[in-house]
UniProtKB/TrEMBL annotation:
Residues 1-46 form the SpoVT-AbrB domain. NCBIfam families: lp_hng_hel_AbrB. Pfam families: MazE_antitoxin. Keywords: DNA-binding. It comes from Azospirillum brasilense. GO terms for molecular function: DNA binding. This is AbrB family looped-hinge helix DNA binding protein. Transmembrane segments: none annotated.
Amino acid sequence: MHISRLAADNRALIPEDVRDALGLKEGDPILFSVKDGQAVIRKVSLKAPSVDTAYLKSLEGGLSEWGSPEDDEAFDDL
């Protein structure tokens, strides 16, 4: 367990072994969540998920009935 102090500019140091355990490097995005009075810090991956373009192409034909101007107008305010 580590203790860090909140600085005047609301920054806190993340201890080196915590950074190492999470694989954090300068500039990495991190996520904070709070539940039941406890904070959790996680490294965030901003890598784009892999996309199966062949699968998406196969869906296009089956979804064409939803691409009409009437549908655009009907669902425009959603």
